[in-house]
Amino acid sequence: MDIGTTEQTGSNGRLVAVVVTYNRLDKLQTTLTRLLENAPAHLQAVVLVDNASTDGTEAWLATRADPRLVVERLAVNSGGAGGFRHGLRAAQERFDPDWFVVMDDDAHPAPEALATFHAVLRRDDTAAAAAVYFPDGRICEMNRPSVNPFWRPRVFARTVLRGLRGKGRDGYHIPYASYEDISPLEIDLTSFVGLFLSRRMLIENGLPDSRLFLYGDDVIYTLRLRRSGFVILFEPGLRFEHDCSTFENDQRRVFSPIWKVYYSYRNGLIMYREASGLLLFWPLAAMAAVKWALAGRRYGAQRRCYNRLLRRALVDGLRGRATLKHQDVLALAAADKEVMDKTCE
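-> structure tokens emitted (345 positions)
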């Protein structure tokens, strides 16, 4: 498979991994082990952003001696968005690599993934998105890439029809059969787990928006990447594993801690505006608001807390405003002092 050429001859040049961690030392240990098992020819360095972890991560990292591991410890937790922005900038300034690959601390490449990336000469206008699986081999739904239905009339129609049956997500996400294919598939939106970005992309498209803090920052970034004229290919041969659990063990699909409600919904509205354009955004936002309001029934004693976060998310998201500080989001979640310890931790 040949998907282009670069200025390099016989190689895609230098690759640096950027990993963001916060209080998941056990999973981080696995991720770093898997990354640093790769030969230097396949992975020049790992830039790890420690988002002010308090679980012993800092002390453990101080014992690591691998010269390819660069630790950037932040004074405060800047969320995934802030962590990736900081890490990508640090990787740029320190190594100026040809390619970057990004992932969370609970995600890592399969043993052959980075060698597979280098086995094909690549264009610097084409990003590569990995196929992401749970540790047990199931497809990781939260990392299933998609196309933008608002740019593709047939996909839009399919999404609407399937949405009437409660399966709208399957209308615009890539089909599961794509994971078994051998050919790359062009996509518009994907996650920051196993995404390979070129130096040119960061120069021309900039860095992730740190103000988003958590959720949707990757989708918004890749959508803007496509708007800038870059291509993103889903490559089933690039396998990553994601040991995540946001909703995996929660059949009610509730956010925990509950403050995550704010970021999910606010950033979701910002993402909808980017994807749909202003004309279609308002009816889409109205439907989303009704759906999210109904979801409050799942939260029981936390429902008042949920509704308060939802209202602020709607106000900020509809205005495209991402200026609320994380400490203020936490305070908003804990405003009911008499029930804070039980319901809003």
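The first strand starts at residue 15 and ends at 21.
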